């Protein structure tokens, strides 16, 4: 069976799930794939980009392991490092024998690296090497001090936090919409895409990796430079972080969008049913956004007796639970699995809602931005496997 043209798999046992008249590839313990894959040098280089980011994140986290602000984020950073290694593996296995698509990715990634590192960062490295006092008076710590002073005024703090949080959650809505629409469009033009020498799923993942790669190369490398070598960033980078950085939660870790996108793209492999990706993205992007927006703008009853964060509210928690339940239910109504009855869908929606509540209340050492994708994705895939035996 061909999944694109670049690799094929010999099936030992197979279960497929019907999406209307389309077939979604799924798996269970009776399903095993043996991939035979023709990997080119360009594929290895593309994978190398992500492996380097993961390794740099490992190094950064381990070097600052006992740094007090890292205590609540270090395990999340290690997980993100592992997910970057996984993304490199995906790059090796997701595309077709037509080498045009890996070459396009390579050209885009290399151009961005040349622009960001070659033209904007490396000149500052040279200046620092020639003049050790270059930007010595400007440190990341002083930047954080000035940024936090803006939040010292209660009126400004509340307003700024709500506006910034709302704008971030809108971006989460766009991420979910992008994942869904890209999949639907590529499925709609499946025959035309296959004529290009790549499967519809392969082309979908190609689009995902263009957008995600651009974001990760800029933002993750930028975040590592922000925390370790602030003086190397261009001035426009300073201004960007002054406007976008959330000083309470992001001062000493990666931006919040990185773990959400990383965790969601964990579920894009062709052996994973689309419902899994959609469920993970719904909870991490939509349900979490509803919980935050409702809680911060309309919440009045704080979680003083349960959970670990008394700033959160019952209104936000309930909004997240209800939106998780409704979203999972809607996904399996619109994208049905033939073996799922309404009772199973109800149970899956309920289990995911309980998982969301537990994560929202008690996640401490691993970011909820990771867990809100990895947990519903795992639960949904496990349910599809169990009830399709």
TrEMBL record:
Residue spans crossing the bilayer: 37-58, 78-98, 104-126, 206-225, 271-295, 316-335, 341-362, 369-388
Keywords, alphabetical: Membrane, Transmembrane, Transmembrane helix
Record's protein name: Cytidylyltransferase family protein
């Amino acid at each position: 069976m061909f999944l694109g043209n670049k690799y094929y798999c010999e099936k030992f046992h197979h279960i497929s799930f019907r999406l209307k008249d389309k077939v979604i590839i799924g798996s269970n313990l009776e399903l095993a794939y043996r991939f035979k894959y023709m990997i080119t040098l360009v594929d290895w280089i593309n994978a190398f980009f992500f492996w380097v980011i993961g390794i740099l994140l490992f190094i950064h986290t381990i070097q600052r392991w006992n740094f007090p602000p890292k205590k609540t984020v270090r395990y999340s950073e290690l997980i993100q490092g592992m997910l970057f290694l996984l993304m490199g593996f995906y790059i090796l296995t997701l595309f077709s024998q037509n080498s045009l698509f890996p070459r396009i990715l390579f050209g885009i990634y290399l151009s961005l690296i040349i622009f960001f590192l070659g033209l904007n960062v490396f000149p500052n490295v040279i200046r620092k090497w020639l003049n050790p006092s270059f930007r010595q008076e400007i440190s990341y710590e002083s930047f954080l001090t000035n940024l936090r002073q803006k939040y010292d005024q209660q009126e400004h703090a509340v307003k700024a936090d709500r506006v910034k949080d709302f704008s971030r959650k809108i971006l989460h809505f766009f991420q979910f919409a992008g994942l869904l629409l890209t999949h639907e469009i590529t499925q709609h033009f499946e025959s035309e895409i296959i004529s290009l020498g790549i499967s519809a799923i392969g082309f979908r993942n190609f689009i995902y990796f263009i957008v995600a790669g651009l974001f990760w190369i800029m933002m993750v490398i930028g975040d590592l430079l922000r925390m370790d070598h602030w003086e190397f960033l261009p001035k426009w980078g300073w201004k960007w972080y002054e406007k976008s950085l959330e000083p309470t939660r992001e001062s000493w870790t990666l931006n919040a969008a990185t773990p959400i996108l990383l965790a969601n793209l964990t579920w894009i492999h062709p052996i994973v049913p689309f419902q899994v990706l959609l469920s993970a993205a719904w909870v991490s992007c939509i349900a979490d956004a509803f919980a935050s927006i409702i809680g911060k703008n309309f919440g009045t009853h704080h979680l003083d007796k349960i959970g670990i964060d008394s700033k959160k509210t019952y209104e936000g928690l309930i909004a997240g639970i209800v939106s998780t339940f409704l979203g999972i239910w809607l996904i399996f109504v619109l994208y049905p699995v033939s073996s799922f009855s309404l009772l199973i869908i109800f149970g899956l929606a309920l289990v995911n809602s309980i998982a969301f509540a537990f994560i929202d209340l008690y996640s401490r050492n691993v970011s909820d931005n990771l867990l809100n994708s990895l947990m519903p994705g795992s639960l949904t895939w496990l349910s599809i496997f169990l009830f399709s035996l």
